[in-house]
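Marked as duplicate of an earlier ticket. Keeping the data here for the record.
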Amino acid sequence: MHAPASPGWLLVALCAATGAYCLLRMRSPVQEQRRAAGGEAVMGFGMAAMAVPAAAFTPPAWTWPVYAVVFGAVALRALWSARTSAHHLHHLVGSAAMVYMSLTMAASPGPHEHMHGGAGIPLLTGALLLYFAGYVLRSGARLVPAAATGQGPSTGGPTGGPPGWGDRPELARACRLSMGMAMVAMLLTL
């Protein structure tokens, strides 16, 4: 999203690592976890691709509408899945934010010019920033160890044994937290 090179590459690494972990989570025996992890993997890799610094690679003009179509399809899938799980509403907001950022970048006059000039933050960008900042704070609070919150130990994996990599709720939360922070960073550079 045209951030400086070093923070941009850190954002790319964070999003790509999150997307890779979400691919590992897709091996879970629980269908709902696989479904959520698939959407999060697409988001992670899409965010990594969009975060590549413009100094390293300026994508062709047709890339942004393609991103908008891909994330529009992801948003439709999240909307369909939201009828069975409220968590997919967050996927819907995230996908819609990606569509918004793609369309904003498609309309941007050049790789180093800011679209908004001196007019301040547009209303939709501000609303998305507030949503994702709140999501980051909520997700971070949920990472507090269970003993500190008085909730007790985890029940383990679906078979009663230790949870596998795809079934670790604290890692899934950390994954979602990192993507939320990346979304805030991308919206700030928009």
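See parent ticket for discussion. The two ends are 6 Å apart (CA to CA).
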